Amino acid sequence: IWNRSYIWLIFLFLISTAILYLLYYWRVKQEIDYGKLFKGYWRINFLFFLTAYCVLIAIGIFNRISHLMF
To answer: Which of 33, 40, 56, 69 is deepest in the core (most CB within 10 A)?
Structure first.
């Protein structure tokens, strides 16, 4: 859509969500179970990237249609 790569931003987001989720999990449970921690982290990222993918598809379709009309 924007003719640029934002992979560095994706990696930065993944690392920051991992750190924040680790801190949250530790504060709530007081003990770290790495299996549950990884599953929760995986699910959070899946939901975020699924939402982002759907939004970007809608933006791309809208941009394509607007370029064809004008």
So the answer is: 40
